[in-house]
Design a protein that fits this description.
Helices cover 75% and strands 5% of the residues. It is mostly helical. It folds into three domains: 56 residues, no CATH class; 94 residues, Receptor-associated Protein; 232 residues, Receptor-associated Protein (Up-down Bundle), CATH 1.20.81. About 3% of the residues have low confidence.
Length: 401
């Protein structure tokens, strides 16, 4: 059973969350083990509808997982026992959803479950790569190093994603402003100007006629156009996340100039880094390839990596299989893999490729930042200028007579 609770820590801080237990008494005992004094406890089924909806705002971000990994690694280095470290992190965690997961994990570990196994119960939070690295750290006695690497790895991906999102904020704001201006002109300015034009004994330019017709259409059917576009975008978004739709989307994206080359570098860097790390952690290459395929981020690359895994199990060299896909895996990567296979240093060869592609990705993002803003300003400014020109051109012609 699940129970919603409110409790106070030793420091007097109020904490809320959900805990799994066989009874109310067991739930209270479990929370007391985590140094929490229970002030309120109820069955989760009685939770109000509005309270369930608020969970949307408690989503665990990648940054939260980075902080969790970093804190746990530091506590391990300080020789703090795992269960005690998890208790301490749970008390300091502000995100209720993450705190709930940490409490559940600590309960499992305290009951004798391996840490990696307890993490695997939460695949949305901890990927198969994360769980495998923890498992390798447990086996080799280097769990602290594994957690430190995972924190660094996730932080790099978080930094890259944040950088790209940040690059899109300014153009998105410009787009919103321009769309707002266009809507105002279509619904208010142009209809008023149409009355002026109708009083003019003059033939209007073609571009002005087109703009007036577009304004009339938008005023009459704009709501329907909006609903159609919103529905089409929602349908496309759903289709592109499922099965064949996702595969088609991934193939199309890889063929778009600049976007395709950028994504290819991201996928290659992710493929090489994850595979190198798993192999160096002592995980068999077939299992490493399977895990890498699941987290590479593209259905196109996922299918190829799964094929590589099947061929490697049959005894084929990985470099020979990569050579069959020169568009997805460039010669530099194939050659480095071949060298690593011959010398027995595949993990090191892959990591050297990672450093190359990581620098290329950073350079590509910087180039994107430098050209995206002026291009968006020119394009959107041109749209507004064209619309204004269509409105002002008849007035200019009238004043010239």
């Amino acid at each position: 059973m699940k129970f919603n609770y409110q409790a106070r820590s030793k420091k007097g801080e109020v904490q809320t969350g959900t805990v799994e237990a066989s009874s109310r008494e067991a739930a209270i005992l479990l929370l007391q083990r985590h140094n929490l004094f229970v002030t309120f406890l109820e069955r989760a089924e009685t939770r109000p509808f509005y309270a369930k909806k608020i969970k949307i705002f408690e989503r665990v971000s990648k940054k939260d997982v980075v902080n969790f990994s970093r804190q746990l690694a530091l506590m391990f280095k300080s020789k703090i026992p795992l269960v005690q470290a998890l208790h301490s992190i749970a008390e300091q965690t502000k995100n209720p959803s993450l705190r709930e997961k940490i409490l559940i994990i600590s309960q499992e570990v305290e009951g004798g479950t391996r840490f990696s196994q307890a993490l695997s119960v939460h695949p949305k939070l901890f990927s198969s790569f994360y769980v495998s690295m923890v498992k390798a750290g447990e086996a080799s006695g280097s769990l602290s190093e594994s957690l430190t690497y995972l924190a660094d790895h996730l932080e790099r991906e978080y930094h890259l994603a944040s950088k790209i999102q940040g690059a899109m904020i300014y153009p998105a704001l410009i787009g919103v402003v321009v769309v707002g201006v266009l809507v105002m002109m279509m619904y208010f300015v142009i209809p008023n100007m149409t009355k002026v034009f109708s009083e003019m004994d003059q033939d209007l330019p073609l571009v002005t006629k087109v703009v007036i017709s577009l304004s009339n259409f938008m005023r009459a059917w704009g709501w329907l156009v909006f609903l159609f576009i919103a529905g089409a975008l929602a349908a496309f978004n759903r289709y592109s996340k499922l099965g064949e739709g996702k595969r088609i989307k991934d193939r199309v994206l890889l063929r778009i100039p600049f976007v395709g080359s950028f994504l290819r570098m991201v996928y290659l860097s992710r493929f090489a880094e994850n595979l190198s790390t798993l192999i160096s952690g002592g995980i068999p290459i077939a299992q490493s390839l399977e895990i890498t395929a699941e987290i590479v981020g593209s259905d196109v690359y996922q299918q190829i990596v799964f094929e590589i895994k099947e061929e490697v199990v049959r005894g084929e060299n990985m470099s020979k299989i990569l050579a069959r896909y020169p568009n997805e895996f460039p010669p530099i990567l194939t050659q480095m893999v071949a060298v690593g296979e011959k010398t027995g240093t595949l993990d090191q060869s892959l990591m050297s490729v990672v450093n190359f592609y990581r620098n290329e990705v950073e350079r590509a993002v910087d180039n994107l930042l430098s050209i995206l803003e002026p291009v968006m300003v020119i394009l959107l400014g041109g749209m507004v200028a064209g619309l204004m020109g269509a409105v002002l051109l008849p007035l200019y012609k009238m004043s010239s007579f």
